[in-house]
Task: structure prediction
Amino acid sequence: MKIIKMDKSPREPFANPIFTAPGVTIQKLVPDSKDFNLNIVHFPKGVRNKFHTHDSEQILIITSGKGTVATEKEEKVVTVGDVILFPAGEKHWHGATNDSEFSHAYVTRMGSQTHILE
Result:
């Protein structure tokens, strides 16, 4: 068994072409897992990721702020405590609203690829 204190996990810059602007950070919570990716991503106000898909399901757990999650068919505002499930292959994006920073934990299967679509 391993216990991770989220507030003790360091934030690292997360520069990636999937984001619409710089300033995103990541906390790697279980880097030793053989089955799952579990990280917290922090978005500055107004920053989101671009439309993308994953090879596995993706679960988001909102940990702070207010954000938007969207598919091609709908957009929803989400807040702390909301849990979102994106099926494998579903085109989607997520990020901070213009008036709030935003953080979420995400879970994907280890080895799942992300495909940027815009």
